[in-house]
Amino acid sequence: MNAPLLIELRTEELPPKALNNLGESLAAGVVEGLEKAQLISGVADYQVFAAPRRLGVLVQNVKPVQADQRMVKKGPSVAAGMKDGEPTKALLGFARSNQVEIDQLSQIDDGKQMVFAYEYTQAGQPLSALLSDILNLAIKKLPIPKVMHWGSSAYSFVRPVHGLVMLHGTETVAGSVLGLSSQNWTLGHRFLSEGRITFNHAADYAQQLLEQGKVVASFAERRARIEQSLSEAEQALHAQVAYAEGLLDEVTALVEWPVVLQAGFDERFLQVPQECLILTMQQNQKYFPLLNSEGKLINRFLLVSNLQTENPVHIIHGNERVLRARLADAEFFYLQDQKTSLASRLSRLENVVYHNKLGSQAERVQRITQLATAIAPLLGVDVNKAARAAELAKADLLTDMVGEFPELQGTMGKYYALHDGEDTNVAVAIEQHYWPRFASDALPDNLLGTVVALADKLETLLGIWGIGLIPTGDKDPYALRRSTLGILRMLMQHNLALTPLIQAAFDTFPAGKLAANTVSEVAEFMQARLAILLQNNYAQDVVAAVLAGNVENLGELEARLAAVTQFKRLDEATALIAANKRVHNLLKKVDISALPAMATTLLQQQDEQNLYQATEQVAIKIQAALKQQNFVQALAELTGIKEKVDTFFTNVMVMDENEAIRNNRLALLLFLSHQMNAVADIALLNE
Questions:
Q1: Are 517 and 584 members of one domain?
Q2: Is the separation of the CB atoms in 637 and 622 below 8 Å?
Q3: What positions does the domain DALR anticodon binding occupy (predicted)?
């Protein structure tokens, strides 16, 4: 009879950052194995369990025995199996290997030829004969970077395993995995539960663990409970939780029975920049800081305990005591760092290696400063302020606070620059020159920050690429793809040209330091990344058409893409795209740079005269629209010459025997092509 199947591996504390993935992967592997063995009735329906000391899965509608299966073993082809009416050695050997007579074999078509085959019915195997192998295979497929051995056992897993449950309905499925025999019991919470928890039915697993074991076995349910408790605490304190990416998942993976508690710390620590305090609480202690309505840190925080007591005061005070020591360290670093100005630290950057092929951080700062002063005029930024911000941008790498918390580089530079009396915009630029830090992160919100951010990322990209450390596959240790994405987003926002900046960045390095083809390779790489970025919002052919136009000022891209997308919807678009492709193909056959200027006196036929006049008129309108960056109008003007283009190709032989006439007609098509592709290369659009 079909019944739910429960599998649980009871372990020592599993790595929290990998817990959920381990649970999902184990469950998926088990279900895949059951499906391949045809042991699941209907569509697979299963529940994943992942808690600090256990991984499990509950699969519904699992069969106790496989259905009988019709098996087919293919042998030699009919042509190779019979010669002159007699069976060959190949056919005799095939029959003997299957312990049957020749007349018990059938002939089937395998899709290529007729072959001999042995067809038979294989009795279905019981679940108990298959489950251990299915689970072992699922375990082997788990994404475990480093395994452990325990005791004298020859087995290995991400953490030592101490218990195995394999329960089908009410029946324990006999089997052995990782040296453990299956059973129908487990242990609950390390402190809140006592003794064994015996399961009478697989479906009772989660409920019994909850009630008897004080364990919320489902990762998703545990996470939801924590999130709900945090929300209730927020409302009670009229505050909001400062979530760090991944913190909620990590805390969920650390507790079996989550209890959210409130605690506090001395107000004096609020004099330290809140980013330091928040990072200390989140990263070191896995606490949830609280912010007021203005986004300012308050001296209260939330913690998630794995214990439930009538009076949690000792838990709260213990956590407060630990946090006090951490915050005192942060306070000490902050006060010590302020005794030395950022500017006075610059000489020490000469002793900090950036890369053995690219020199010290001091040399890098010189390059960033040179590039920043070149970019500043393009955005109307004061060159002296750009130089000062770039000069100080990396100075906080030598501070105690950044040494303890590298994530605060730039942020601490801002605070220390303000303390030193530097210009406010310079201080903000020091912080924001690292922006965007990741794909969806905010761009710098002031122009000075944009200047230094561009200089920093371009220097990194050109330098690392130029010494041969090019991203390959999923390997990108210097995050060049991320830097490229940030550069492109900033260039698009501020309508800047890409190629001159790549060259300017290359020129900041000493001659011969970087590979000679670095500029062209980086430009090609960035164009490819730009296409990927734009394809998030626009069709691939539209992106290809616009980028083929070699748009220099990237701020125009969005408008051009939108215009081309709208153009494709026009009734005339299909014919114009086809005509443009035909023009492309004709011009490919000649050296267009050698074509003479078009002469109206050589336009012999009325249809080519009409096309020239129409193109000349539309060219004026297109150029006027382009000056206004009205790309929709520029493309719309093309509809006015559609009929002239169609008639020209119907009645005029472009490749005339007379060379002068032929070249003149090609020159006319080149003139037409310039107008048709003024916004984008529409020949690349799908018709």
A1: no
A2: yes
A3: 578-674
